[in-house]
Amino acid sequence: MLDFGFDKIALIGAVALIVIGPEKLPRVARTVGTLLGKAQRYVADVKAEVNRSIELEELQKMKSQFQSAVQDVEQTVRQEVDSATQALNQTWQDVSNDASSSSYDPDTGLASPPPQYRHPKKNWRLKRGATPLWFKQKAGVKRHTQSGAARVARFRPPGRT
Protein backbone atom coordinates (compact mmCIF):
# COMPACT_ATOMS: atom_id res chain seq x y z
CA MET A 1 0.00 0.00 0.00
CA LEU A 2 0.99 3.61 0.15
CA ASP A 3 3.66 4.60 2.60
CA PHE A 4 2.64 7.68 4.55
CA GLY A 5 4.95 9.04 7.18
CA PHE A 6 4.00 11.47 9.95
CA ASP A 7 5.33 14.47 8.02
CA LYS A 8 3.24 13.67 4.92
CA ILE A 9 0.07 13.21 6.98
CA ALA A 10 0.70 16.53 8.78
CA LEU A 11 1.16 18.30 5.45
CA ILE A 12 -2.10 16.81 4.06
CA GLY A 13 -3.93 17.84 7.25
CA ALA A 14 -2.64 21.42 7.01
CA VAL A 15 -3.68 21.71 3.33
CA ALA A 16 -7.12 20.23 4.15
CA LEU A 17 -7.53 22.69 7.04
CA ILE A 18 -6.79 25.60 4.75
CA VAL A 19 -8.89 24.38 1.79
CA ILE A 20 -11.92 22.96 3.63
CA GLY A 21 -11.93 25.14 6.65
CA PRO A 22 -12.07 24.40 10.35
CA GLU A 23 -15.89 24.10 10.47
CA LYS A 24 -16.32 21.34 7.86
CA LEU A 25 -13.05 19.51 8.55
CA PRO A 26 -14.37 17.14 11.32
CA ARG A 27 -17.32 16.01 9.14
CA VAL A 28 -15.09 15.50 6.09
CA ALA A 29 -12.53 13.61 8.23
CA ARG A 30 -15.33 11.33 9.53
CA THR A 31 -16.60 10.70 6.00
CA VAL A 32 -13.07 9.97 4.71
CA GLY A 33 -12.52 7.61 7.67
CA THR A 34 -15.73 5.68 6.98
CA LEU A 35 -14.90 5.48 3.26
CA LEU A 36 -11.39 4.20 4.05
CA GLY A 37 -12.86 1.64 6.47
CA LYS A 38 -15.31 0.44 3.82
CA ALA A 39 -12.52 0.22 1.28
CA GLN A 40 -10.37 -1.82 3.67
CA ARG A 41 -13.28 -4.19 4.43
CA TYR A 42 -13.95 -4.57 0.71
CA VAL A 43 -10.30 -5.39 0.03
CA ALA A 44 -10.28 -7.89 2.93
CA ASP A 45 -13.48 -9.54 1.60
CA VAL A 46 -11.97 -9.84 -1.87
CA LYS A 47 -8.80 -11.39 -0.43
CA ALA A 48 -10.85 -13.85 1.63
CA GLU A 49 -12.94 -14.81 -1.41
CA VAL A 50 -9.82 -15.39 -3.49
CA ASN A 51 -8.31 -17.53 -0.72
CA ARG A 52 -11.55 -19.53 -0.43
CA SER A 53 -11.67 -20.15 -4.17
CA ILE A 54 -8.02 -21.29 -4.15
CA GLU A 55 -8.71 -23.63 -1.21
CA LEU A 56 -11.84 -24.93 -2.94
CA GLU A 57 -9.84 -25.73 -6.07
CA GLU A 58 -7.22 -27.54 -3.97
CA LEU A 59 -9.95 -29.49 -2.17
CA GLN A 60 -11.54 -30.45 -5.48
CA LYS A 61 -8.18 -31.70 -6.74
CA MET A 62 -7.70 -33.73 -3.57
CA LYS A 63 -11.25 -35.07 -3.88
CA SER A 64 -10.63 -36.22 -7.44
CA GLN A 65 -7.35 -37.87 -6.38
CA PHE A 66 -9.07 -39.68 -3.50
CA GLN A 67 -11.92 -40.79 -5.75
CA SER A 68 -9.50 -42.21 -8.30
CA ALA A 69 -7.58 -43.99 -5.51
CA VAL A 70 -10.82 -45.42 -4.11
CA GLN A 71 -11.88 -46.63 -7.55
CA ASP A 72 -8.49 -48.31 -8.04
CA VAL A 73 -8.76 -50.04 -4.67
CA GLU A 74 -12.36 -51.05 -5.38
CA GLN A 75 -11.39 -52.55 -8.74
CA THR A 76 -8.49 -54.43 -7.18
CA VAL A 77 -10.67 -55.80 -4.39
CA ARG A 78 -13.43 -56.74 -6.84
CA GLN A 79 -10.92 -58.60 -9.03
CA GLU A 80 -9.49 -60.46 -6.03
CA VAL A 81 -12.96 -61.39 -4.77
CA ASP A 82 -14.00 -62.57 -8.22
CA SER A 83 -10.88 -64.71 -8.59
CA ALA A 84 -11.36 -66.16 -5.10
CA THR A 85 -15.02 -66.89 -5.87
CA GLN A 86 -14.09 -68.63 -9.10
CA ALA A 87 -11.44 -70.70 -7.32
CA LEU A 88 -13.92 -71.62 -4.58
CA ASN A 89 -16.59 -72.58 -7.10
CA GLN A 90 -14.10 -74.67 -9.04
CA THR A 91 -12.98 -76.45 -5.87
CA TRP A 92 -16.59 -76.99 -4.84
CA GLN A 93 -17.43 -78.49 -8.22
CA ASP A 94 -14.40 -80.76 -8.06
CA VAL A 95 -15.31 -81.92 -4.54
CA SER A 96 -18.99 -82.40 -5.38
CA ASN A 97 -18.06 -84.36 -8.53
CA ASP A 98 -15.69 -86.59 -6.54
CA ALA A 99 -18.23 -87.05 -3.73
CA SER A 100 -21.15 -87.76 -6.04
CA SER A 101 -19.19 -90.31 -8.04
CA SER A 102 -17.92 -92.17 -4.95
CA SER A 103 -21.09 -92.21 -2.80
CA TYR A 104 -23.65 -92.75 -5.54
CA ASP A 105 -26.10 -95.56 -4.81
CA PRO A 106 -27.37 -97.02 -8.10
CA ASP A 107 -30.35 -98.77 -6.41
CA THR A 108 -31.97 -95.58 -5.07
CA GLY A 109 -30.45 -93.16 -7.54
CA LEU A 110 -29.37 -90.89 -4.68
CA ALA A 111 -26.14 -90.17 -2.92
CA SER A 112 -25.74 -91.83 0.47
CA PRO A 113 -26.35 -89.45 3.38
CA PRO A 114 -23.42 -88.27 5.46
CA PRO A 115 -22.81 -90.12 8.75
CA GLN A 116 -24.86 -88.97 11.75
CA TYR A 117 -23.31 -87.14 14.69
CA ARG A 118 -22.65 -89.31 17.74
CA HIS A 119 -22.23 -87.88 21.22
CA PRO A 120 -18.87 -88.94 22.73
CA LYS A 121 -20.63 -90.15 25.97
CA LYS A 122 -18.11 -88.87 28.45
CA ASN A 123 -18.43 -90.48 31.89
CA TRP A 124 -18.19 -87.77 34.55
CA ARG A 125 -17.99 -90.36 37.36
CA LEU A 126 -14.89 -91.79 35.76
CA LYS A 127 -13.41 -88.30 35.55
CA ARG A 128 -14.16 -87.59 39.22
CA GLY A 129 -12.62 -90.90 40.19
CA ALA A 130 -9.44 -90.01 38.33
CA THR A 131 -8.87 -86.97 40.57
CA PRO A 132 -6.21 -87.66 43.24
CA LEU A 133 -7.44 -87.97 46.83
CA TRP A 134 -5.11 -85.27 48.15
CA PHE A 135 -6.56 -82.76 45.63
CA LYS A 136 -10.11 -83.65 46.63
CA GLN A 137 -9.26 -83.10 50.33
CA LYS A 138 -7.59 -79.79 49.59
CA ALA A 139 -10.46 -78.57 47.38
CA GLY A 140 -13.11 -79.73 49.87
CA VAL A 141 -14.77 -82.23 47.54
CA LYS A 142 -17.07 -84.65 49.37
CA ARG A 143 -15.86 -88.24 49.15
CA HIS A 144 -18.67 -90.01 51.00
CA THR A 145 -22.40 -89.53 51.12
CA GLN A 146 -24.18 -89.45 54.45
CA SER A 147 -27.79 -89.65 55.34
CA GLY A 148 -29.43 -86.74 57.09
CA ALA A 149 -29.49 -88.58 60.45
CA ALA A 150 -25.81 -89.45 60.18
CA ARG A 151 -24.98 -85.81 59.47
CA VAL A 152 -26.97 -84.67 62.50
CA ALA A 153 -25.28 -87.26 64.69
CA ARG A 154 -21.89 -86.24 63.38
CA PHE A 155 -22.29 -82.54 64.06
CA ARG A 156 -24.28 -82.84 67.35
CA PRO A 157 -22.54 -81.08 70.25
CA PRO A 158 -20.93 -83.44 72.72
CA GLY A 159 -22.86 -84.25 75.87
CA ARG A 160 -26.25 -84.45 74.25
CA THR A 161 -27.70 -87.79 73.43
UniProtKB/TrEMBL annotation:
Q: Does the keyword Transferase apply?
A: no
Give the family, as the similarity comment puts it. Answer: Belongs to the TatB family.
Check the record and name the PANTHER family matching this protein: SEC-INDEPENDENT PROTEIN TRANSLOCASE PROTEIN TATA, CHLOROPLASTIC (PTHR33162)
Composition bias type Polar residues, residue spans: 88-105
Query: Where does this protein reside within or beyond the cell?
Result: Cell membrane; Membrane
- Gene3D superfamilies annotated for this entry? 1.20.5.3310
What is the name listed in the Swiss-Prot or TrEMBL entry for this protein?
Answer: Sec-independent protein translocase protein TatB
Q: What is the first-listed, main subcellular location in coarse terms? A: membrane
Instruction: Keyword check for Mitochondrion, yes or no.
Output: no
Q: Which UniProt keywords apply?
A: Cell inner membrane, Cell membrane, Membrane, Protein transport, Translocation, Transmembrane, Transmembrane helix, Transport
Compositional bias, Basic residues, is annotated for 118-128
Q: What does the protein in this record do?
A: Part of the twin-arginine translocation (Tat) system that transports large folded proteins containing a characteristic twin-arginine motif in their signal peptide across membranes. Together with TatC, TatB is part of a receptor directly interacting with Tat signal peptides. TatB may form an oligomeric binding site that transiently accommodates folded Tat precursor proteins before their translocation.
Bilayer topology annotation: Single-pass membrane protein
Q: Which domain of life is it from?
A: Bacteria
Region described as Disordered: 88-161
Its quaternary organisation is: The Tat system comprises two distinct complexes: a TatABC complex, containing multiple copies of TatA, TatB and TatC subunits, and a separate TatA complex, containing only TatA subunits. Substrates initially bind to the TatABC complex, which probably triggers association of the separate TatA complex to form the active translocon.
Q: Which Pfam families match?
A: TatA_B_E
